[in-house]
Amino acid sequence: MEEKYFFSEALFEHLSDYNKKADLAYRFNDYEKGKELFQEFTSNHLEGSYMDNFKFRRLNKKEVNLYDYDKPVFLITYASWIIPAKGEIPALNKLAQEYKGKIDFVVLFWDKRETVKKLADQFSKNISIVYVDESQNNGAYVVKQLKHSLGLPTCFLLSEDKQIRDIRRSVFTAASTDEETAYRENYIALESSISKNLISDYNEVYAENVTNQE
């Protein structure tokens, strides 16, 4: 069996080089180059690796492992000081309803429990709201890097066995964009990535399980 290559290993090997190039681009306000470097870094070095089985907590304080989710996972990282893209949360709520039972939607906040509780009402009950309070965390490498390496918010699309299929940033529309247009743009972008990277795999696994039971 081929040994798995994990997200933490990929970061250790390639993050420093990416940061040097990205810092230079942003220093000269070359945001398009920064976006290009992010896409190259994630697609060439991170996608295809397996997300480490790190720990977080639900709002009831119960500790949970990422691998406790047995379906493909749509994971997005937030923090209370980050303003979500306009239309993003309604799009997430809609998709969580549409893919209920097929994909686990997880919103991870880097914050204290009390703060996260105040923000959780924005999200559908079909979305798992979890948090990592770094003041209580033991400093696991993957947790530290997951927060600080790629910025916030960042979306990770993970297959059933937690292989990273896609990494994307939020769709930030122009400030003048109306709510409905912003929602539609976010929905289309997210749904396209989900259907391309996650749902086909789920259907294949489901069909195989059904066949094996016959």
Fold topology:
Elements: H1 7-27, H2 31-46, E1 55-58, E2 63-65, E3 73-78, H3 88-98, E4 104-110, H4 113-119, E5 127-132, H5 141-148, E6 154-158, E7 164-169, H6 179-213
Parallel strand pairs: 3-4, 4-5
Antiparallel strand pairs: 1-2, 1-5, 3-6, 6-7
Helix pairs in contact: 1-2, 3-6
Structure description:
The protein has 214 residues and is α/β, with parallel strands linked by helices. The protein has one domain: Glutaredoxin (3-Layer(aba) Sandwich). The protein has six helices and seven strands. The protein has helices at residues 7-27, 31-46, 88-98, 113-119, 141-148, 179-213, and strands at residues 55-58, 63-65, 73-78, 104-110, 127-132, 154-158, 164-169. It has a seven-stranded mixed β-sheet. Strand 6 and strand 7 (164-169) form a beta hairpin. The longest helix has 35 residues, at 179-213. The two termini are 28 Å apart.
Predict the CATH topology.
Glutaredoxin
Count of separate structural domains: 1
Spatially, the strands of the biggest sheet line up as 2-1-5-4-3-6-7
The CATH class designation is Alpha Beta
Average pLDDT works out at 88
Q: What is the number of beta strands? A: 7
CATH architecture: 3-Layer(aba) Sandwich
Low-pLDDT residue spans: 205-214
Q: Separation of termini?
A: 28 Å
> What is the C-alpha radius of gyration, as a whole number of Å?
17 Å
Which geometry do the CA atoms define? globular
Task: Tell me the name of the CATH homologous superfamily.
Answer: Glutaredoxin
How many helical elements? Answer: 6
Order of helices and strands: HHEEEHEHEHEEH
Q: Into which percentage range does the β-strand content fall?
A: 15-25%
- Helix proportion of residues, in percent? 40-55%
Structural class determined from secondary elements: alpha/beta
Largest sheet: 7 strands, mixed
